[in-house]
């Protein structure tokens, strides 16, 4: 077996293309090596380990503003169209109302006119004068406004203008409309039934308002089931009533200010009560805290609504200035008792860590380092099952993952600052491991010397045997600094070699914790046999002990992430399988194993390539004519001798990516999904399309 220069370990971001080139050169059938993930760069921000949060204080935030219903658009005044002929100027002084209507419509506007009998009996006197260059449409619009002031309506029906009182009973079939918007084209003489749903106020309030404003000109009926009102009247009056509804159907908070106060040291109920007392002492009228605000009842200028579940006080005030004044009082009140006697109790809701883990650190600080976060129960005793675990000075509420501790007010700020610095999301690392097996023979030639010389010229250094050494099966290391390193040039002369990807697992682990992925099977192996001395028809008199051995693809990792995106990585990669034994122990199989156990230091996105694990197997055989093939010298004419040698080399590619938070973890997941092709992206697109829009209801619409 010819000695070969050992393979190497290469630390270089972008090592995956090099391995792809190597395997493509070594085998006519190139295996599919997973491409490196293209993770989008994170936005520039301060390092996680160096960020410092502000001390715990009262938080003030804005609240949603109730929507304001828009009033119906008023019809635009008529404008003279190009080419419209003007009519004669009108100048009437103290003319009877019936004569005024007939004169203007018939003589000036040139339209047919019909007067209601009650209009004919009217004795009102009208003075009307128009300006120069007025069109017929403009004059008619002015006449309609004059008639409206006398309680009359002019409706054009089929070329006949009917003038009648606003509250006259109309003989045409009514038109029915629904909604808060009026039709763009006004209807003729037909009466209108318009059902208007209300958005903010009760229908009883609107009914009282409309009857006061319109009297019997508009009939108003209530629909309590829909919280709506039904309007009946001629088009002009119904339009006016809808404009009034749009102005009145507004929330009581329209034009008012609101904000949310989240106290840091007080409860929401206690802060609301103290604020009410202070504001009342200043002369403000405050709604009693704890009493619900009932619809239709008198509203105080200031409303304080505490929500204990969120530990938040919602403030509703008449103006922004009053709301800001309430916020200033809340900041003045929300502070620990500076003159408290002894120590006070405080709580801290842990967001990203285990509360018991933080309790150990905090308790050692409070007790001078003499206590521990956990206690070991006595032998045979069961730990108590309770909602909280008491330590010397700290209580851990497991139900809410909250710390309750006792400290002096002046110590509280320091302790909360320390807890906020420790209570950060755990960083994680995604580890990619690709294990490839190269099948070699004596005709294979790999240009490792040329490759090493080129990379060393780019700033690398060598550990282990030299390029011209002869350590068969040994492992040599070439470490590259990644600066100005030329592209890896791998040359391989092979005619019938093959390369196989044994495994390509990906596993994400949290910083400082171990993670394992295993895909394979448990193989039974006989570990002990003992004679029992009793032989039956179903037993051979042997007591056999069987142990199970895990085989398949097994990956164990433990990353330790440092600042500067450096990772200390413990990797154990095993590829094993059970094969027929050749050791003579027929009761148990032989485990064929490929295993790498190493510790590395690399940066995020970098790739480590390990090689040089070469194994060799050989076999010899002879077959031919019986008896004749065994004759010395002459027997070679009657026989065939075979000799084969199989040499394989294991190549391991390791890449690590750091995920500082959930957003980067999602970005890595998306990059991995894209590397799998369109079939892996389609389910995500379907899920996104199936998700309801923000604020939309997922329930079926009626």
TrEMBL record:
InterPro entries: Bact_Secretion_Sys_Channel, GspD/PilQ, NolW-like, NolW-like_sf, T2SS/T3SS_dom. Residues 195-253, 347-427 form the NolW-like domain. Residues 492-659 form the Type II/III secretion system secretin-like domain. The keyword Transport applies. Residues 1-20 form the signal peptide. GO terms for cellular component: cell outer membrane; type II protein secretion system complex. PROSITE patterns: PROKAR_LIPOPROTEIN. It is found in: Cell outer membrane; Membrane. Pfam families: Secretin, Secretin_N. Residues 56-77, 683-702 are annotated as: Disordered. Keywords: Membrane, Signal, Transport. GO terms for biological process: protein secretion. It comes from the Bacteria. Belongs to the bacterial secretin family. This is NolW-like domain-containing protein. It comes from Inhella crocodyli.
């Amino acid at each position: 077996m010819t000695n070969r220069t050992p393979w190497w370990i290469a630390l270089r971001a972008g090592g995956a293309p090099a391995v792809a080139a190597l395997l493509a050169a070594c085998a006519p059938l190139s295996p599919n090596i997973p491409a490196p993930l293209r993770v989008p760069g994170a936005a520039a921000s301060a390092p996680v380990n160096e960020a410092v949060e502000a001390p715990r204080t009262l938080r003030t935030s804005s609240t949603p503003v109730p929507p304001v219903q828009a009033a119906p658009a008023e019809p635009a005044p008529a404008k003279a169209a190009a080419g419209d002929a003007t009519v004669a100027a009108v100048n009437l002084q103290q003319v009877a109302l019936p004569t005024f209507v007939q004169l203007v419509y018939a003589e000036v506007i040139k339209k047919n006119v019909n007067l209601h009998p009650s209009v004919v009996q009217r004795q009102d006197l009208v003075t009307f004068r128009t300006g120069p260059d007025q069109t017929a449409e403009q004059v008619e619009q002015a006449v309609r406004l004059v008639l409206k002031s006398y309680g009359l309506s002019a409706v054009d029906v089929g070329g006949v203008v009917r003038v009648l009182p606003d509250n006259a009973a109309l003989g045409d079939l009514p038109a029915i409309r629904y909604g808060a918007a009026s039709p763009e084209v006004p209807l003729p003489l037909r009466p209108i039934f318009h059902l208007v749903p209300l958005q903010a106020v009760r229908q009883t309030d609107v009914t009282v308002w409309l009857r006061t404003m319109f009297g019997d000109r508009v009939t108003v009926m209530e629909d309590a089931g829909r919280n709506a009102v039904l309007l009946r009247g001629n088009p002009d009056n119904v339009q006016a009533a809808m404009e009034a509804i749009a102005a009145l159907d507004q929330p009581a908070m329209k034009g008012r200010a609101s904000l949310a106060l989240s106290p840091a040291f007080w409860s929401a109920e206690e802060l609301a009560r103290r604020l009410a007392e202070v504001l009342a002492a200043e002369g403000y009228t405050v709604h009693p805290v704890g009493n619900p605000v009932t619809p239709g009842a008198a509203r105080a200028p200031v409303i304080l609504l505490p929500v204990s579940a969120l530990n938040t006080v919602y403030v509703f005030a008449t103006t922004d200035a009053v709301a800001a004044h309430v916020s200033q009082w809340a900041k003045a009140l929300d502070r620990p008792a500076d003159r408290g006697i002894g120590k006070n109790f405080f709580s801290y809701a842990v967001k990203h860590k285990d509360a018991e883990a933080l309790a150990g650190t905090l308790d050692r600080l409070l007790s001078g380092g003499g206590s521990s976060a956990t206690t070991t129960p006595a032998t045979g005793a069961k730990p108590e099952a309770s909602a909280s675990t008491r330590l010397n000075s700290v209580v851990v509420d497991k139900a809410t993952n909250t710390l309750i501790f006792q400290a002096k007010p002046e110590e509280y700020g320091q302790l909360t600052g320390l807890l906020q610095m420790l209570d950060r999301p755990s960083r994680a690392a995604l580890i990619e491991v690709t294990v490839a097996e190269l099948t070699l023979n004596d005709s294979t030639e790999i240009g490792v010397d040329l490759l090493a010389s080129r990379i060393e010229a780019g700033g690398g250094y060598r550990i282990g045997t030299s390029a011209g050494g002869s350590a068969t099966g040994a492992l040599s290391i070439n470490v590259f600094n990644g600066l100005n390193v030329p592209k890896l040039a791998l040359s391989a002369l092979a005619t019938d070699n093959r390369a196989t990807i044994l495994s390509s697992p990906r596993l994400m682990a949290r910083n400082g914790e171990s993670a394992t992925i295993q895909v394979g099977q448990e193989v039974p192996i006989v570990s002990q046999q003992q004679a029992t001395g009793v032989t039956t028809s179903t037993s051979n008199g042997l007591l056999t002990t069987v142990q199970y051995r895990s085989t398949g693809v097994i990956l164990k990792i433990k990353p330790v992430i440092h600042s500067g995106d450096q990772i200390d990585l413990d990797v154990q990669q095993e590829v094993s399988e059970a094969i027929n034994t050749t050791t003579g122990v027929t009761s148990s199989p032989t485990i064929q194993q490929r295993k790498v156990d190493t510790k590395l230091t690399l940066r995020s996105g970098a790739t480590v390539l390990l090689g040089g694990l070469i194994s060799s197997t050989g076999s010899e055989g002879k077959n031919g004519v019986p008896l004749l093939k065994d004759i010395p010298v002459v027997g070679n004419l009657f026989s065939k001798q075979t000799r084969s040698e199989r040499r394989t080399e294991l190549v391991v590619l390791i890449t690590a990516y750091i995920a500082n938070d959930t957003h980067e973890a999602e970005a890595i997941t998306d990059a991995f999904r894209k590397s799998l092709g369109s079939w892996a992206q389609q389910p995500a697109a379907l899920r996104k399309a199936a998700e309801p829009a923000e604020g939309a209801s997922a329930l079926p619409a009626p």
